């Protein structure tokens, strides 16, 4: 088990993990956030949320000094003082842009009559109804740059065809807690976590010890890419198989309570 004074990195999902699935509160995790901050351990938000949403949450969580991974790994945003930073202020896009993804989705729907709706198809009020977010937050969630969440209304056979056609366009589907997410084939939480871990290791040459915390199928890549994984009990019935179960802890509590439970179990003080 890692110690708090190891060269730690903590990668965490938000909804259903650090944030409560219903209230979006992180209060039960605050004690650990304070402890990690005091030990100068980076807490890297790794989420399906947009950069606009994460930037706001970073301020509230007092984590603005750290990078974050947005849109399920399709974007990595680095702090302004990051050494050798070359990315634009809006972040680095991995794979296809939002405009390219939307163009492909619209074309496929028109050609094959696929039944789905993405954020780009609906009003902010519909996103509110889908997510339970406040209207202002729903508008932030619609400021997308590299991925599109959608709800599938069609049958399984059409879905298999849809996924095949996306693959032919260099796009991929990943399952989140509420939505399917379409993004570039090479993007993902796992590759983003691996890239950032290497960036942290390079200056000192000292190996980093990474911990991942997540609750949904779209977190599996992140959990497989970290040295230790906390699988937080989710509000879903999807399987959460990992490549290395011996480095994983599965919580009996949900949301930030499970987040706290996982770090209580893993990190030695």
TrEMBL record:
Keyword tRNA-binding: no
Lineage summary: Bacteria, Pseudomonadati, Pseudomonadota, Gammaproteobacteria, Enterobacterales
Family annotation (NCBIfam families): HAD-SF-IIB, HAD-SF-IIB-MPGP, PRK03669.1
InterPro entries: HAD-like_sf, HAD-SF-IIB-MPGP, HAD-SF_hydro_IIB, HAD_sf
Keywords of the record: Hydrolase, Magnesium, Metal-binding
Protein name: Mannosyl-3-phosphoglycerate phosphatase
Record bears the keyword Transmembrane helix: no
Pfam families: Hydrolase_3 (PF08282)
């Amino acid at each position: 088990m890692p110690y708090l004074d190891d060269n730690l990195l903590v990668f965490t999902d938000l909804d259903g993990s650090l944030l409560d699935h219903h209230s979006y509160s992180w209060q039960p995790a605050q004690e650990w956030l304070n402890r990690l901050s005091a030990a100068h351990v980076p807490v890297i938000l790794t989420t399906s949320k947009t950069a606009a949403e994460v930037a706001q949450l970073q301020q509230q969580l007092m984590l603005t000094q750290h990078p974050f991974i947005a849109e399920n790994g399709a974007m990595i945003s680095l702090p302004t003082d990051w050494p050798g930073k070359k990315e634009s202020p809006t972040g680095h896009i991995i794979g296809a842009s939002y405009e390219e993804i939307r163009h492909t989705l619209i074309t496929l729907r028109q050609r094959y009559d696929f039944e789905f709706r993405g954020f780009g198809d609906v009003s902010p009020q519909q996103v509110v109804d889908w997510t339970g977010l406040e209207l202002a937050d729903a508008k932030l969630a619609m400021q997308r740059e590299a991925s599109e969440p959608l709800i599938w209304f069609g049958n399984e056979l059409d879905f298999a065809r849809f996924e095949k056609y996306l693959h032919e366009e260099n796009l991929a589907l990943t399952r989140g807690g509420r939505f399917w997410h379409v993004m570039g084939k090479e993007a993902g939480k796992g590759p983003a976590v691996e890239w950032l871990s290497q960036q942290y290791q390079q200056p000192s040459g000292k190996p980093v010890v990474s911990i991942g915390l997540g609750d949904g199928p779209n977190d599996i890549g992140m959990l497989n890419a970290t040295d230790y994984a906390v699988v937080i009990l989710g509000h879903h019935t999807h399987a959460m198989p990992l490549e290395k179960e011996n480095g994983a802890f599965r919580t009996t509590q949900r949301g930030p309570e499970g987040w706290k439970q996982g770090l209580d179990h893993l990190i030695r003080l």
